[in-house]
User: Fold this.
Amino acid sequence: MTFSPELEARFAKMLQSYPPGRTRSAVVPMLLYGQDEVGYVSQELVEEVARRCGVTPLQVDEVIGYYSMLHRARLGKYHVQVCTNIACQALGGEQLYEHASRTLGLGNKDVSPDGLISLEEVECMGACSWAPAIQINYDFHHLVTPERFDRLMESLRDGSYGRKAS
Amino acid sequence: MRYNEPSDLEVRVISQRFDLPNSTSIDTYLANEGYVAIRKALGMTAEAIIEELKVSSLRGRGGAGFPTGMKWSFVPRNSGKPTYIICNSDESEPGTCKDRLLMENDPHQLIEGMLIAGWTIKSNKGYIFIRGEYRYLIEIVDRAIAEAYERGYLGQNILGSGWDFDLYTHTGAGAYECGEESALLESLEGKRGVPRLKPPFPAVVGAFQSPTILNNTETYSSVPVIFRNGGAWFAGLGTPKNGGTRLMCISGHVNKPGVYELPMGFPMMRLINEVCGGMRNGKKLKAVIPGGSSAPVLTAAECENLPLDFDSLAKLKSMAGSGGLVVLDEDTDIVAVALRTIKFYAHESCGWCIPCREGTTWLKKLLTRFHEGGGTERDIDTIGELASNMLGRTFCALGDAAAMPTTGFITKFRSEFEEYLKKSQGRVQPAPELINV
Amino acid sequence: MADPVKFTIDGRPMQAAPGTLLINAAKEAGIAIPSFCYYDGLALQAACRMCLVEVEKTPKLQVACTTPVAEGMVVQTDSPQVRQARKGMLEFLLTNHPLDCPVCDKGGECELQDMVFRYGAGESRYVESKLHVDEKQWSPIVFYDAPRCILCYRCVRICGEGLGVGALGIGNRGAAAEIVPNRGDHLECDECGACIDICPVGALTSGTYRYKTRPWEMEHIGTICTHCSNGCKTTLGVRNGNIIRANNRDRSGVNGEFLCVKGRYAFDFNENPERLTAPLLRAGGEFKPVSWAIALATVAKKLSELKARHGKFGVIGSNRTTNEENYQLQKFARLVMGTSNIDHHRTGDFATLLDTLSGRANALATTADVYTTKAALVIHSDLAQEHPLLAFQLRANSRHHKAHVYAVTPGPVREDNYGTGVRADPGREFEVLATLREKLAAETELIFLFGAAIKGAAIRQLVEFGDSLGIPVKYICLLDYSNSRGASDMGLLPDLLPGYRHVSEIGLDPGMDCDQMLSDPNLEALWVVGSNPLARQSLGATNAFLVVSDLFLTETARRADVVFPAMSAYEKNGTVTNVCGDVQKLSRGPKTMGTKSDLDIVALLAREMRADLGPTKVDDVFQEIRRTVRGYENLPFGVIETGGAAATAPVHGPVRFESRPELIRPTANGLFTSGTLGRFSGMLNGLIESPGALYRDPHVRPVIEFGSGQLEMVQDK
Assistant:
C-alpha cells in the first residue's frame, strides 16, 4: 500500500523519530494520518501499519478499538463533531447537537448518503471557554449557535467552506 | 490567537507574549527574552536547577499539583539507560483549554522549558504528546521545533554546550485516559492507553522503560521564566507552596468566559465577578466545578472567600486540578450535569479494571433513567454507594475522577435529586428496587 | 538470600522472602485472598480488584496481588471494609453478566459462581439493561461469549506469554471492551485451548465440550496423553464410559496446566466408529468377526507349530503401548518364541546417546530441568510443533528465570522470538554450533535438545562438542511417540534386552530389525502390535502369517490373518516413560466393549500356548520391571502410583549394540497430526483444514515484551 508523497515523507520521518527498535510507537500516528488520507481505517491500512511498524495486525487492531478518533467505517468528507460535555452543555451544547442531528438527519456517527457529512457527539475538545464548540475535521469553531451551525453546513454543501475564514 | 479579551487583573507571565504579532515565531521569542533561561541553565548543575525549581514552588499544572522540583529530583541520573523528556499536551480534562493556547501562541516557551528539563538530566530526546484533536497545534509546534533546530536550540551541541537534544511531536488519537502519565507512555509506545502498574513511577521506569521527566504543557511553559527571574520571584507571585501564576479556564454562565493568567491563590469570587464580568443575565451563582470535571462541585457558599490554589481547594475536599472552572448559575439542572459528567467517564474508561468499567457504566445508565424520570428514592442512595464502591479501589485515578464528582453532586445537591423525583413522578414506570440474582 | 520480612496477616505473625506478594504470602499461610486476574506465572494485572485488603496505616485498600510484603506490615484480609469491597466488586461484575448459569458449560466449576457464593450478595441493585453481544465462534474449537467475560486477561496472557502465540488481544474500550482474535473474526493459532481452560468463567468454551454435560456428571480421571512423547498429564472427563473432555485444571503432572490441542481435544479417536471391537479372522480373503477364544486359539496354534519347527518369527512392537506391555511382549518373543527378532519404529537414537554418556551422572535432563536450566540449545527440532510441552517449559523458563535459549534449526522456530535462532541446513548443524561456541561456553550450564537428525556418530560428536564447552551439559534425545522411550527401555530392540543389556546375556543372538523382518521373504509369522509399518512398505514375506493388535483397521491390519482389537492408552492402566525419562502412570478412563489391553493379549496368548510369562497384573509386571530393568530400579512406586512423575536413572556402563541410524525415522508429527490416532481424530482433521501456522507467517513475529524488571513487576497488555 502506498500513500501520497507527503504522507510517505511524514511516515519516513515519523519512524525515525522514535528510539531504535521502537517503531511500534508509530502505530497510533500512522493510523490517524493514514485514516485522514484513506477516509477510514481499512483492513489494508491495518496490515500496512502492522508491517511498517513491525507488529501483528492484532496489535494494531487492539489500538484501533481503543482510540475514539480511529474509525473502522468510512466517515464523511467533513466529519462534524459536536461537543456536549459540561462546559458546552452549560451553554447549549446538547441542544446544538440535537439541532445538528435533526437538521442533518443524522444520528451519532452516521454519514450522509452522499458521503459529504458525518456527525458525532464528542467529548470535551478543549474549547470550553468559547462554548459551545464544534470541530469540522480538525478545524475548531467556537461559540456556535444553531444559526451559525446551519451556515457552516451550508458552506460544506456549496463548497465554500474553508475558502473563507470561519 | 487569543479567543477572549484579556483582563486588567491578569498577571501575564507565561502568557506575556500571547498578544505579540507573530508570537509563534522564534524571532519574536528571541526578541522577548526567549532562550535566555536555557543559557542560564546551561551554566548550572542539575542540583542547582532542581533547587531553583523547589524555591519557585512550581507545582504540576496537569491536575495533581505535585511539586515539579521534587519530581525532577526523582529521576536517576546515572542509570546507564537513555532518559526522556515528555510533555503531556493531551489536554482533555473537561473544562480545560489552556495548553492549547500555550502551544498556539508561544510554542518556543514550551520548547525552552523542555530543554531545561533535558539539560537537567542530560536527556537527549523529548516528545510532546499532543491530543489528536489538536492537529493544528502539531503543525504550529512542528514549525517551532524546526526553527529551533535551525537556530541551534535543538539538535547537536546546543549553544556550544556539547549536549544534544532532539524534540518531536507525537499525536494521540482520542483518549482522555492518555492524560494519565503512564497511560500516555503506553500510548507513546504504540499500545492501548491503559495505565501501568505503579510503582515503578515514570521518573524511574517511564518512556521506553527508561527514566523520564513527564510534565504538563503549562508546567514546562512556566519553567523558563523561573530561570529568567529567579525561583523566589516566581514563588512570590502566588501563595506559600503554590508558586507562580496559572492559566485559569473559565467556562459556563459568566459574562466573559475565557482563559486568564492569574496568580495562584486568586480569589474565586473576584475571578467570577471582576475578571469574568459577573454572572450572565444577572443570574445567581449555584455551583462551580473548580478544577476540571473530576473536581467535586462547590456550592456558591463554598466559593465565598476561596483562594484558588491547590491547598485551599483540597481543604474543601475538591481540587484545583487542571485549572478549568465551570461556573453554573441558578437555572442549571444539576442532575443533567451529573449525568453528562458520568457519561464522559463511562465513555473514557479504558475498561481495564472492574470497578471503573462497570461502575461508570452502571452510574451512567442509572442517571440516564433517573434523568428521564424513571428514578426512585432508592436510586439517590445507590448513586452514592456505587461511587463509594469505586472510590480508591480502581486501577488508576480515572475511577476516582468519576466517583468524586458524582459523590459531590449527590451530597451537595441531594435536594435537587429529590425534587427531580417529585417532578418526574408518574412520568415513567420506575424500576424495581431490588431483584434477586 | 536477604533476611525474611516479618509481617502480620489477620493477626497471625508471619514471614516471607522480600518481594513476596501479599496474595502469595497469605496463601502460604492458608489464607485465601480471592482474585480473578492474578494467575501464578503470568504477568500481574491488578485489574479485577477482588484481592483488595486492608493494610494498616494505608488509607486506601491495597491490591494484594501486586503489593509486596513489607517489614511490620499489618494486613486484614477479612475486615468488614474488605468484605464490603469484595461484595461491591462482585456486584459490579454481575451487572453486565448474563447470569445464564443454568445453560453455561462452566456452571458448577465457575470461579465467578464460587466467588459470588462465598463473597457476594444474594441480591442486586442493578435494574438497568444489559449490553448484549452475540456469541462468536473463532475456530472449530474456540467460542467466545463476550457478556460472560469478566476481562481478567488470563487468556490473553497464557496465549502471549505462555504459548508465545499472541493470538488474543483486547478490543474496544470501557464497557464494550472484549477479547478479540488475531484474524479479525477468527483465530489462527495452535488451537491449544489453553485460553478456554484458563478462563475462570464460561466466556471461552470449546467446540468439543460445549453444551454436552454438566461437570458433576463426569468422572475425572488423570492419565497421560497418548499423542506425543512429552507425557503430559491430561484429566479425562468421562461420562457413561465416554470421554467428554480433557484438560489439566488441577495443574498436576510434568506439564502443570499445559496441554496442546492433542492432549486437550484429540481424544475423539477413542470413540471413532471405526474402532475395532471384535477380533477379526481372515477367512476366504475376508475378515470375519470371531470370539476372543477363537482368535487366540488360532494364533496360539499357529505360533506353537512354528516354534516347534523353529520357523522364522518376529515381533514389531509399539511406541504407544505401556512399559508393562512392552516388557511382557519382549518376554513373549524371547522366552516363549525364543527369538530376538523384535524391534519397534525408532524415532531417535537414544541408545547411542546412552552409550556415549556411559558412566556419567546428571547427563540426562528431566522435564523439570527444562524449566530450571540456565540455558538450553535446541538442535534440529521445531519444538513448538513437535514437543509442545518442552517448548512451553523453555519459554516459561526464559520468562520466569531469564534462561537463555538457542535454536539451531533448518527453518524458523518459535524460539527465535525470544532466544537466539540460527538457521542450519540438515547436516550442517555442527558448523553453526562452532559459531555459537563462545556464547555457549559462557553459559553456566546447558541442556541440548536434539532431534532425530542427530543420530549415530553425530550424537557422539555432539557430546564431544558439549564436553568441549567446559560446563555441565545435559541431553534430551527427542523421540516422537508417547512411549518411544519405554519401547527402547523395555528392550523392543533386536540386540538389547530391557535396561539395555545385550541379548547374549540370556544366550540369544541379536535378532532381525524392523526393516529386515519386513523384507525377509522367509519370515513365516509376524506379530505387529500397535504399529503400522505396512503403510509405507509391503511385507516381503508374502505368505507370512500376520497377527496385528490395533485400535483400527490400519494398512497393516488389513493385511493381517488375525486382528486383535486393542485398548487405547486411555482405556488401560500401566506406566509410560516420556521423552525425558519421566515415568508416569496411565489410569483407565473410558471402555470400549470387546477390546483388550495388549498386556492381556500377550498373557492370554502365552497361556493359550501353555507358556509362563510370569506376572499378569499391571502392578505385578511393574514390580518386576522395578526389580530387573536397569534405570527403573527402585523407581518410587508411591510417587508414580499417586500420579507423579519419577525419573529413570541413567544406565551406567557402555551399551553394546549396533547403532543403525538408517532405522531412525522421525514421524514429523506436528501439532495437528498424530500418526494413526490422528487419522482417526475427526477433531484434528477438522482443524487441519482451518488456517494455521501463525508463526510461520514471514512478516509477523508475535513479539511479546516482558519489560525489564522481575516477573512480579512485569505487566504486559
Observations:
- Chain B is about 45% helix and 15% strand.
